[in-house]
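Quarterly update from the structural biology core.
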Amino acid sequence: MKMKIPTLERDQHLPSRVASSINREISSGRLQTGARLPTENEMAESFGVSRNVIREAVSQLRADGVIMARQGVGAFVMAPEKRSVIRIDPAALRDTEGMERFFELRNILETEAAGLAAERRSQGSLDLIRDALDRMSGNERWEEGSIDADLAFHREIAHATGNEFINTFISFICERIRQSIHYARETNPIDSLVETNLAEHAAIYEAIVSGDPDTARLAMRRHIIGAAERVGINMTRTLHDRPLLNETRKVN
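Predicted structure, tokenized:
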């Protein structure tokens, strides 16, 4: 197999760029489950890097549970269902298809989490969600601190579900949400973006406070569709716009 250096991302250090490129070969199916990776020498030549770089890249893939090594035999691609580590490659969120899949995942996880939070929230969890919302709308609304508060808002909703597995998965994806927020801020007028984002979060909070699971799910879904649109992804097609409109009429 010939892997080429032009696909590497320049904002990562070299072994991580190589690991990301190999990961894309695996995700695309060009390297299939059970396939043996080329030798260190072959990959070093293909990428134009040293064997030490290849060795570190392979170590990263092993740590991520993407490949397994057999002493004296080589490194082999693991089946997805046998991987013990969950990982989202940051490079995958730099293209439209990867970002669209990421927002589909957010919709599955966070929409239901909002509904469960509305059913199960305690006063303590409401206070923490409100605190995050206040920090989002405070003096740091244009700064990194507002993004930290935004992510805290989503984590606190997950925590309010009382389901540690939901909390674990949403906490995991939060750093990838950060990546999409940064991109949105780079590509949209910051004033209108921040105000729209705050309004969406306020609607989610009010629905959770009211204890209305359907309204909370709808508010979160609207936010995810809006967040996707702000990075150039049209989710109304994949999230079925017509049912959403029906739900809107029912709520109103």
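The CA atoms of residues 107 and 221 lie 6 Å apart.
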